[in-house]
Amino acid sequence: MKVNDQEIPQKAVEYELNRLIHFYAQHGVPQDQIRASLETLKTRAEEQVIGTTLLFAEAARLDIPVSEQEIDESVKAMEEQAGGAQKLREILEKQGQNLVQLRNEIHRGRKVDKLVAKITGEAADPTPAEAEAYFNAHRAEFGKEAQVRCQHILVSPRSASAEDDLAAIAKIREIRDRVAAGSDFATEAATHSDCPSGKQAGGSLGWFSRGMMVKEFDEAAFSLPVGGLSDIIKTQFGYHIIYKNDEQKEAVPEYSEVAEQVLDVLRHERRGKVLSDYVAELRSKAKIER
Asked: Rounded to whole angstroms, how far apart are CA atoms 106 and 98?
């Protein structure tokens, strides 16, 4: 890919793609959904790299001033984070870089930071009335989602045969009967569960919100009372039993409790829109080759 005849290394797109994948995974998007969206994410990563390249080129063209003191301060902060000047030099050497190259990168980065600050500084600040109207239209987004904390045990059939399916049902039924009679759930999970959570955490799945698990599991987990043991649940993974440890009810705040947060969200959206429009204008004049 080229942007205004500048060759864009494939590793730049791969880095951005990996960042997007990590972001969505960290925010609870299931792995199968991420895999199904890989082509869309790759296109988004390419667009992000194109936009970043155009901003760097524009910042260089405008010759935005960056003082040596600013660069010194950035290097010092990186040294402190690395554990000292020597540690930073060692890290740079492992990456095939030196301090001069680092200072040049900081110089370029600070130019772009200043350009972005100038562009986004032109965004109109939201009024309290606009913020309250936004809150009323997006009230649920500022609340706390209902969550549950559960343990589970999974028994997966060895094959798709009817015989192995019946064997899996019989095994999970026996486990459930022992738990109902007082056997320790975590011990049963560590001994018998086919899910890695069994041996790693006694079957604990931690806290999760609606939609983070497959439908059948999700419905059972949220319908159980705290301290409740589910019946046998069939999913695409096999047969489960669930023990519900705790729950947090959905909570929607009053506007006065989150007014500053709402204002910040609106500011972020407006600044993002101004920057997006600016990059779109740069792109309309650019030569992009894929």
From this structure: 12
